[in-house]
Amino acid sequence: MSAPPGSAARREWAFKRTRRRCAAAAGNKLIEAMLENAGQPKLGLIGNGPEYSMFESLLINTALYVESEDGWIFSSPQNTDEGIYHAWKAIEGFCRSAKDAPKNVSLLYDELEAPPYGAKKVIILVLLLSVLLYHNEYVSVYIDETFIPVLGPEHFELLVKKPERFAVKYFEIMEVKVEVLTQVYQIFCDNQ
Question: Following DSSP, what letter does each residue of 21-72 receive, concatenated?
Answer without folding.
Answer: HHHHHHHHHHHHHHHHSTTSGGGG--SSSHHHHHHIIIIITTTSEEEETTEE
